[in-house]
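Our collaborator T.R. sent over the components below with a one-line note: 'Predict the complex.' Nothing else. No constraints on interfaces, no templates requested, no preferences about which chain binds where. So this is a plain run: every listed entity goes in together, and whatever single assembly comes back becomes the starting point for the next discussion.
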Amino acid sequence: MLLIDCPYCGERPEPEFAYGGQAHVARPARPAEASDEAWADYLYFRRNTRGLHAERWRHIRGCGRFFNALRDTRTDHFLGTYKIGAPPPPLADT
Amino acid sequence: MNAPLRLTAGGRIDRTRRLEFSFDGRTYRGYAGDTLASALLAGGVHLMGRSFKYHRPRGPIAAGVEEPNALVTVRRDAGRCTPNLRATQVELYEGLRASSQNRWPSLRFDLGALNDLLAPFIPAGFYYKTFMWPRRAWAALYEPRIRAAAGLGHAPRAADPDRYATRFAHCDVLVVGAGPAGLAAAGAAAELGARVILCDEQSEAGGSLLAASPAGAERPGGFAADAWIEEQLRGLRVRPNVRLLTRTTAFGYFPHNAVALNERLTDHLADPPADLPRERQWQVRAREVVLACGAIERPLVFPGNDRPGIILADAARTWLHRYAVLPGTRAVLVTGCDAAYQTALDLARAGVDVACIADTRPEPQAAARALAEDIPVLNAARVRHTEGRLRVTAIALEGRSAGQAVRMLQPCDLVLMSGGYTPSLHLHSQARGNLRWSGALQCFLPAESRERVRSAGACRGVLTLDAALRDGREAGAAAARAALARDGVRPGPPPAAAPPAEEPAGAAVDAASPHGRGRAFVDWQNDVTSKDLALAVREGFRSIEHVKRYTTTGMATDQGKTSNLNALGIVARVLGSSPPEVGLTTFRMPYNPVSFGAFAGTARGELFDPVRVTPMHPWAEAQGAVFEDVGLWKRARYFPRAGEDLHAAVARECRAVRAGCGLFDASTLGKIEVVGRDAVNFLNRLYVNSFDSLEPGRCRYGVLLRDDGFIYDDGVIARLAADRFHVTTTTGGAPRVLALMEDYLQTEWPELKVWLTSTTEQWAVLAVQGPRAREVLQGLSDIPLGGEALPHMSVASGFIGGVPLRLFRVSFTGELGYELNVPADFGLSLWERLWERGRAYGMCAYGTESMHVLRAEKGYVIVGQDTDGTVTPDDAGLGWAIGKKKPDFLGRRSLSRAALRAPERRQLVGLLTLEPQRVLEEGAQVMAQDGASSPARPLGFVTSSYFSAVLGRSIALGLVSGGRARTGQTLYVPAPGGTLPVQVASPVFYDPSGARLHG
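Returned assembly:
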C-alpha cells in the first residue's frame, strides 16, 4: 500500500487515490488539424517506463484534486508530487 | 493417559493447570503452556501425520512455525474447524479436539501408504507425464482422484461464525520478533522516545531464549534467560510509547513500510469471550522497521531421514527446555556444526541415553566436549539408512572413530539433525531487499533494501547471543534516531549496517552415504527427495523457480522454511553451479498461513459492499417488488401481483403505461449540476451536441464520447439558467462521467470557470408516463402543464406542496411524460401522494424491466447494453445529435478516422423474428446464412430482446454490420433448438412518428 503525498492534503494511504495514467499527455490544441498518426499517438501510445515515471493521481476520496507524481516503477518510491501545471520537482536531492 | 516423557521440573509450562485434550479421539493430558505437539510428545506420541504424496508416517521435526509434517485439524464445532494447523503452533486448552489428516482408515494403518510402494513409479512431475490421455479425463477423473489421494485437511462447509477485526496503526519503529535481538531493539528504540510496536508470533516474548539451556552459555548480560526476558518486558510495559503484541505474526511487507500483522486473540482459549474477535489484522505504517525474525535450523539430507523420531536438534532443545519433554529415550545426533552439541549434552543430563554423535566434519573441535561426557563421536560421518515403521528404531552410520573406519547400526528412538541455521529473510525479501551469500554460514543474508528496514540478530547471521543483543540494541537505536529525525516518510533506504563478522559456524546439506539406500527427503511436506530434484535438473529445468514448480519443493503451508536452502544446494551441485548463482525462489506473503476471515475483516454479509437504496425503496418493498442490482443500487425490477411471474407482470405494466399512466422511480439516474460562467462552453467541449442554442427552460438529449470517438454515456441535459445546467447520466455512469468532467476541467481546461457537483442523491426522481400523465399531475404544483407552457423536452422550477420541484417534460417510454425531481427527503411522501391520486387514472407502478421493454419498443438505446465501448454515435443511429458546426468536442477528431466511417461498421437495427412468438437470446450472434459452415464470421449480435405485449410479438435490437442498408433482409440468429430467421427492420417499433410524445 503506497503512501502518497497529495500536494493539497499531505501524505495519505493509497486507497484514497485513483491512478490517472501517464502525466503530461497534452490534448492537441486543434484536433481537427492533427494528422491521423499524431492523433493516434495522443490517444493510444503511452510509455511503459522501467524507472522514473511521471504520472497522474487523483485524491478521489479526499480533496478530489488531480496532481502529478514522479515514481520509480522499479521500487514504487515517489521522488515527489506536484500540482497540475507546475514543472516536475528537481531531482538533485534524490 | 500418562505423560511418561514429561520431566518433573523445569520448562515454562504451568504444572498447576492440567489440561485434558483429545487427538484422533483419544484423550491425553498436558499443561497450560504446552503446544499440542509438546503434550503429545510427552505422552510418547511421535506419529502425528501422513505425508502428502506417499502417505509415509510422519512426526514433527520442528517445534515451531517451520513444522512441515504435523498438520492437524482443530475442531470446536461445524463452523469453527481449522485444517492444516501445525501441531507445534497449536496452543493447548482444556477440551481441545484435534485430529490427524490425509489418512484412511486410521493414522497408524493408512491404506494410502500403498503410494509409498509405488514411489519408484511416481517421481516428481509424474502426473504431468502419465495422465495425458484421454485429454478430457484430466478434469473429470484424474485430477479429482489425485487430489483426493494427495491431501491436506478439509475446509469446513458451515459458515465461519467468528468475528474478525481490522486495525490501522502508525509507529516510529516496528520491531518484528521479540527474541533477544528484538527485545533489545525495542528497548533501545523506546528509550529514545520513539513510538514502538513490537510483535511476536508466539504466545510469549523471548524467542530462542524461551528454550535457553540452563547449563549453557545463554545468559544475556549475565542473567538467567527467564529473568532477563521478564526484566525486558517490565521495562517495555511501563512505557506508554510501546505496544507489545504477542500471538501476532508479521506476514506481509508492502511498499512504503506498510506491514501486515495477524493477531490471534481467541484460538488459545477454551471458552472464548463473545466480545472478542477471533483475529485482528493490523495494517501498520512504520517509519522504520527492525526485523529480528531469527533463524531456522536446517535438516540434513540422508536416506530415511523422515521417520517419526528424526527431528531437528533445535526442536529437541525447545521441547526439553521450554516444555520439559524428553523427545525420546535413546538418541543419536547427526550434525554438521557445533550448535547442537549443547543440546545433546543437555539431553544426556536429563536422562536420555545419547548413544552417539555423528559429525559430518572430519575433525570437529566440539567433539572434545562430548567425549568429556562419555558420549562417543563419529567423525566424517555419513548415514546409510534408518529403520523403523511408525517410529525410528535404528540408524546405520559410517565414519571414522579413533582413526579407524567404522560402520554401525545404532538402535535408537530419536535422531537429532543439525545442518546449520537459515536466517529468516521472508520479510526482508518482501521489502525488495537484496540478498548476499555467506560462504561461511552456507546461507543468504540480507543486503540493502529500498524500504526503511534493517535486520538484526540471527536473521542477518548474527548467531551468538551477546552479538545478537548488541546488534539488536544498535539497530533499535539507529531506527529510532532515523524515525525521529524526519517529519514524514521519505523514500530511500536506511544506511546499511556493517555486515556481521562471520563465524565459522559450519553447515552441511548432505549427510548421505554414497552406499546408502532409501529416499533422502528434502521437502517433508511435499515428499520431495534429493532424487526428484536431480531428476528435474536432468529433465532440463534450470531455473530454481521452474524446479520448484515441477517438483513442488518449497510449496504449501511451510513454504519451504526447512527445505529451500537444502534444495538450492542440491540443484546447484547437480548443475555444477553454486548457490548464489542459482539463487533463491521469491519469498511471498503470507509468512505463515492466515485465515481468510482476517483478510475479510468486517467486509462480509451485509457489510461486504455498500447497498444504495432510493427514498421510495420502502414503498416498493412493501408492494412486494422484485429488486435487481444495478451497480450498488437496488432497483425495483417489477411489481408482481398474486400469481404473476416476470413476464405477466411486465406485460401488465407495459400495457398500463401505454393505455393510461405509469409511475416509475428514476432516482438512481446520475445527476451533476454544472454551474459557472463557462458552463455552456464546457458542455460544448464535452458533449457532441451544441448547447449554444439551448434556451433556459429547455432540455436536450446529450451524447458523451471519449476522445477515441466511442459512446461513453448519455442523458438529458437541462438548462436551468444561462450559467446553470442539470446534467443527467446513466445510473451506472454517474461516477465515471463526473470523474471525466473533473479530469478535463482540472487538467486540460483549468481556465474555465465551472463548478461540478454530484446531486444524484439530493434529488428523488418520480417519472409519470403515459397518455393520462398530465391529468394525474394537473393542479398539483404551481407549474402550468399545458402543451405550450411546458412542451416536450422542457424544464421548469416551482413548488409542489410547498416543496421545491424541478419538473422535466421528458420521456423514456415514447408516451407523454414528466419527471418530478424533489429533494430526496420528500420523495416518498410525494410518491405516496401521486399513487393515491393516480388510482382514479388507472396508474400502475412499473419497474426497470418494463422500462427496458418500453424504451426498446421506441428504439431508445441503453448505453452499456446496446453499446459496448466500440460504438460511434452514427453506429447507434444517434448521428443527428452531433452539433455539425462545432469545431471540436470530445471524440470529434476520431470520428473522421477512416475506420470509424467504414460502411461495414456494425449499426443498430431492429430484428423481427419471422415467428413472432419466439424471443431471441441477448448476446446471440447474427449470421448471414442459415446453418453456415463453421467457422462463419458473424455479422453482429443481439443487444436487447424482449416480448412486447403491446405489439403482440417479440422485438430485438442488434448491432449488425452495414445494418441499415440491410433493412428488409433476412438474417439468422442461433437459438436453443435451432436457428431463427429474422428480418432486419427499423429499431423504432412503436409510434415511429413520435406523435404520442406530444400528448
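Summary for T.R.: The interface with chain B takes residues 1-3, 5, 10-11, 13, 18, 20, 27-28, 30-32, 34, 36, 39, 42-44, 56, 58, 60, 64-66, 75-79, 84-85, 94 of chain A (CB under 8 Å).
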